[in-house]
Amino acid sequence: AKRNITDLIMEIEAVSAEENNARLQNGRLLAQISDCQSMQRVALEENLKLQNEVEHLKNSRVDIETKMEQIRVVLQQQESIVPSLRSSEQSVRSELHNSKLNNTDLVGRKHSNEQ
Questions:
Q1: What is the C-alpha separation between 70 and 62, in angstroms, rounded?
Q2: CA distance 30 to 24
Q3: Model confidence pLDDT, tens digit, residues 60-96
Q4: Residue 39: other Cβ atoms inside 10 A
Q5: Longest dimension (CA), the chain
Q6: Residue 109: predicted pLDDT
Q7: pLDDT tens sequence across 34-63
Q8: What's the rounded Cα separation, in Å, for the pair 68 and 63?
Q9: What is the DSSP letter of 42?
Q10: Residue 6 DSSP SS3
């Protein structure tokens, strides 16, 4: 009977030791799970930040493309006006030349009439 009690005590101590080891392993496992969850949280926060930055860059790109299109339209309008301005300049130069000729002719006639 004493031997059975000793065997029973040893068996209880062995089970207690295994139980303590299991608790320690569970504690380490819970700590690892907590660490993994923290790393996942950090990764998700970084991912969200990057998504926000990408969205901001997309919006900036759209704004820049819109401005570039507006500039292209203005340039086209300016380029379409240039031939008209050149034509007007040529016409004004021609009129100025004719006015100078007429003025020279009138001055010449005035001098002829005075003599």
A1: 12
A2: 10
A3: 999 999 999 999 999 999 999 999 999 999 999 999 9
A4: 10
A5: 165
A6: 78
A7: 999 999 999 999 999 999 999 999 999 999
A8: 9
A9: H
A10: helix
Residues 24, 18: Cα–Cα separation, whole Å: 10
The answer on pLDDT for 108 being more than 90 is no
> How far is Cα 47 from Cα 98, in angstroms, rounded to an integer?
75
**How far, in Å, CA of 60 to CA of 52, rounded?**
12
Q: Distance between alpha carbon 23 and the CA centroid of its chain, in Å?
A: 51
The radius of gyration of the chain from alpha carbons, rounded to an integer in Å, stands at 49
- Write out the two tokens for 67: 């401005």
Tell me how far apart the alpha carbons of residues 114 and 112 are, in angstroms, rounded to a whole number: 5
Structure token pair of residue 109? 């006639």
Residue 18 has what pLDDT? Answer: 96
Token pair for residue 35?
């660490």
What is the pLDDT, as a whole number, of residue 31? Answer: 97
